[in-house]
Design goal:
seven-stranded mixed beta sheet, single chain, 7 helices, alpha/beta, two-stranded antiparallel ribbon, 25% strand
């Protein structure tokens, strides 16, 4: 079974309010990201934290499980850890995506999982025009290592630690835009 981990716990300080519930094309940002990730995995776990109730409300009706990260203010690594620890023991791998990227491509999620199956590498990372981005797949073999990451980083340290265990999916397109400020939200359409 392949799980999806959507990291959606941040405080949205630069946005000024909970950005994950801001709407793009009438749909909350976090819901768009969750639907895209869910389309390519067997189980979806969403890690919430800041404003967890309103984020969970924006996901109402979707087939997923929410996990609360009480330590969200300590950085992205705490959400990665909370998500990894919440995974079902049957999960062979986890595809990690960010809740503030409403433009996540569902087909890319499938390409990442197909690459994992084809290469057997414990980490699959996407590169957009050569720059690493999300989604990132982690095999169960690196779950323990992932749960030990600290600070405001996710899987980056795991990727950089040993390049021989990483398979890349190269995409000749721009990475999905993060929504960090109200200006980032401007111009986004359905």
């Amino acid at each position: 079974m392949i799980a999806g981990l959507l990291l959606a716990a941040g405080g949205a300080r630069r946005f000024g309010s909970q950005k994950l519930v801001a709407k793009v094309g009438g749909v909350p940002i976090v819901r768009r990201a969750a639907e895209a990730l869910a389309s390519g995995v067997d189980e979806l776990v969403v890690v919430t934290g800041s404003d967890g109730v309103v984020v969970r409300d924006a996901l109402a009706g979707l087939n997923l499980r929410c996990v609360e990260n009480a330590e969200w203010a300590a950085g992205l690594s705490t959400s990665l850890r909370a998500g990894i620890l919440a995974l079902d023991g049957e999960a062979s791998a986890a595809v990690i995506a960010l809740g503030d990227q409403p433009g996540l491509d569902p087909e890319l999620v499938r390409t990442v999982t197909d690459t994992w199956r084809a290469t057997g590498k414990p980490i699959v990372a996407v590169r957009y025009h050569g720059a690493r981005g999300h989604p990132v797949l982690l095999d169960r073999a690196v779950f323990g290592e992932a749960s030990e990451v600290r600070g405001d980083m996710g899987a980056r340290m795991l990727i950089e630690r040993d390049a021989t265990r990483v398979a890349y999916v190269d995409v000749e397109a721009d990475a999905p835009r993060d929504v960090d400020t109200p200006v980032d939200l401007e111009g986004m359409s359905s």
